[in-house]
Model the fold of this input.
Amino acid sequence: MSSQPDKNSQPEQANVSDDSIQQTHAQLLQTKPEKTGGYSFLPLGILGLMCTAVFFGSIYLAHNSVRFDPLVYSEAAKREKPGAVANVALTRAQLGKRVFSNVCIACHQVNGLGIPSVYPPLAGSEWALGNEERIIRIVLHGLNGPIEVKGSTYANVMAPLGEVLKDEQIANVISYVRSEWGNAASEVQPELVAKVRAATAERKTYWTAAELQQVGP
Amino acid sequence: MQVDASAKWPGLALFVSALIWLLLGGTLQLIAAIQLHTPTFLADCAWFTYGRIAPAAQNALIYGWGINAALGFGLWLMARLSATTLRHGGWLLVAIQFWNMGVTLGVLGILGGYSTSFELLEMPRFVTLILLVSYAMMGVWAVTTFSIRNTENVFASQWYLFGAAFWFPWLYAIAQLMLLKAPVRGVLQPVVNAWFVHGLYGLWFVPVALAAAYYFLPKILGKPIANYYLAPLAFWWLVIGTALAGGSRLIGAPVPVWIPTLGTVANFLLVVPVVIIGLNFFGTFSGRYSALAGSVTLRFILLSALAFIFASVLNLAFSLRGFVEIAQFTLLSELRDWVVLYACFSAAMFGAAYFILPRLTSGAWRFPALVKMHLGATLVGVALLTVALGVGGWQQGHLLNTPNVAFGEITQAMTFWFTLRTAGFAVLWFGHLAFAINFVGLLSPLCAWGKKAPADLGQGSSAEGHA
Amino acid sequence: MKNGLTLFLGIFATLALSWVGLLLTAHQQIGRLSQFKDPVDETLYPQPLSGLAVQGSMVYQDLGCVSCHTQQVRREGFGADLGRKWGQRGSYARDYIRDSVVLIGQNRLGPDLRNAGNLELHPYADADYFYRLLYAPQSVAPGTNMPAHAFLFEVHALAGRQPSTHAIKVPGRFGPGAGYEVVPTNRAHSLVAYLQSLKDSYDYPIERSRNASAEKPK
Done:
């Protein structure tokens, strides 16, 4: 083995010149391959492949581009034009969830259970589920404890939100509180909030539990 | 021989630069790979944190190794097929230095914290103009050599090289404009980025690899390309499809859904040119596989051709939503791009180098054992990485889609695959070192400046030797 | 294809076709996507980031966090992103117009971060959590291969002085030991501010209805 020069050290042998490569291939492009009797499968095969690819490609494009809608990111979305389908309107409770997450969650917590002995729960709370006018007042002007909720007493303060939130937002967040975590009470409408706001326009101080009891059950 | 002589210094400069970047980039890549399973490795220094080293390695390999090697091969081949000498090579040497300077600044910029965070465009903005200007100087050479050609006919390799020479700067310039100079808003940035990345792999690296295969197969086998009359169809279909397929990288992303769908459809259509090119290459090979034993170049080209087919299959798989749901964001998507860059493009460039370099230096490889080692290392490394990235990526994807598996557990499960990946990169790195040593051996007679005539130069001057 | 000019025109047309067909068209559609004004609270969403968070996004880019983390939540039915609490809904394009550099990412070597600061999903993710994550990732995420970014912090010897108000509490064996404190640098402050700003909690009604699945929910 050692007497033969190692093939790997020899420079690569070229078997044809560049010129002949150019010429041969140019000729191949110009002359068609000879027919050996009958038809040659290859061009037909390629043609068939092309047609299949284009056909399936077009179908896929039509099915998965959803009207080329710029706001659709899911190929599984409905293909009808948006005008034909009514936009899903969010319920008041769904709109209220966002207000709750921005404003109320810090104390009353995401699960509505508050913090024992510190912040009262809203889940199952008689104050949330009862007379709407009471809870609207709490949200508008705040509350100064003590207040008894579900058997426990909470001696804390809730800041007023009447200047921070609009009537519609207050209606939304109260509707959310009244329908979440197992609560099942009616929605609150912005008109009621407006009415209570007008009725208590003179109020400057926080409510107390006793005053609220007088408003109703 | 005049052609080779005229291409000697620019060609050597390009290949030397390419090899240096290959080793440097490979080292950075190795460090990054180690950090995946040993996160404490070099973690104390901000310059070596994974988020900086990984993009630095990628950019060094793509712009340092990739562009230099492709230009080294491309300019030589353009000159050969145009049957004209490479004029004014001195300016080319200047351009090469500027390109390397630009990439060096870019890689250092990434390590220093100036990364732009856009995939494959991480090099900081101050480098863009240097790179574009020096590329323009080099690209102009390819085009003018082509336009003053003495040959009547235009061969397939020339179509691909000519195309690649234009597509790269246009892609790069437009992407830089739309992402960095006058940034587009919001989610359009990933759309432009995906278009660029897909174009870089599919309209630069793949065409250069195909150009190599189209040339070396008939050259070494002495037989024309099989079914060559289909090659023009394959060329146009391939490049038009690839240009539109960028969106397939954005399946599931918050972009209008027609964009990934269009990319998917383009990828379906690419089956046709891949079949034709497969027929071209493997039809030419058929019956001549015995020639592999005598030719290193041919062995690398075969690897490159197989990798092209594999990469196209992966590309198609990555257009199917069911597959993407699992494979997205995992090692599998790294495999998809790595197969193109390494197993397809780099293998073709090694094959080309083994053919071209002895002709440029009128020498012969000093260490045949190192040639075998390089080949073996390439095969072993490719196998290791395919398994590590393929199987590992698949497992990673499944685990990611199982919500009750904590992320820490996923990382633990992946440690084996990360280690295998590091091993693969290490094996490849040693292969490159073997090649580099051989290259230095080839160059060293030149450094003797003709004081003594080296004994083995006799091979190169035989009459029927290198045509 | 003998003619160099024909070849050149074809090559140009290829790229021009894709630029027009893909990029230009996409730009026409979403290039001027603007904020959405909520009809109830009359706020524009997405809300812009605070200045400190914008600085933090630059630190995020500088350190290359995008190499390991994505910032795109995949929709319901495509992957388990929602099950992993990486978001409350799939991401929309409008979420990203507040980012001057969109860091959508391509790799999930680490978890998706689009809602990293969303306390509804991750109630434990306060500022302290992020500081500890950056200083010693193993202390809050066991088994992780995230590198420690200790260079974002300074370790001071207490030498009998009061500890700094900014010092972070690092559990036991991850800390520098007794008599030392770990204080975040400005880069750490801004990066954590950015991470805490990452939340997409607003559900745009138009996108919500347009992307509703064609199948009836079971």
User: Anything to note?
Assistant: Chain A has two domains: 49-88, 92-215.
